[in-house]
Design a protein that fits this description.
binds magnesium ion, 76% helix, single chain
Length: 173
Amino acid sequence: MIKPTIQDAINAQINAELWSAYLYLSMGMYFESQGLSGIANWFRIQFKEEQAHAEIFINYLIQRGGRVELKAIEAVPTTWESVSDAFAHTLAHEQKVTALINDLYALTEAEHDYATRGRLDWFISEQVEEEETAQSILDRLKLIEGDGSAMFMLNQEFAARVYNVPSPLAAKA
Ligand code: MG
C-alpha cells in the first residue's frame, strides 16, 4: 500500500500533467487559428504525450493499490504573440515541471518509498529531453525571426511529427 503523502503528491502530479496537456492543446488550437497547421501538429502531439504522462502515473497508483483522484484542471492561456513566444512559454513550463518531478523525487526519499523513486527515473530523463527539445526549437526560431520562407519550412517540418507511445505505456500494452 502506498503512503497517503505519496498518493496525494502523485495525484497532484497527475493534475499537473493534465494541465500541461491542456496547455499544449490550447497552443495547438491557437496555431490552427493562425493557419500554421504544422506548428499546431507539433503541439497536438505534445498534448498526447502529456496525457500519456498522466496515464503512467495513473497506472502506477492503481498498481500500488492507491486511489486516483482527478481534480479540476485550471484554465490555460489561449493566445500567444508568436511561435517563439509559445516555445519560450513551453521551455519555461517544462522547467517548472522538472522542478515538480524533482520535488516528488525528494519526497519519495524522505518517505523511504524507493519503488516510487525508481519509477520517477524515467520522468527525470524525459524532462531533460523536454527542456533540450524546447531550447533547440527556440534557438532555431531566433535564427528564423522575420523570415517567412524559413517559417514556412519549419511549419512543414513540424507537420511531419508523429506520436510515439512513451515506453512505460508501450511496455504495458
Ligand atoms: Mg509531462
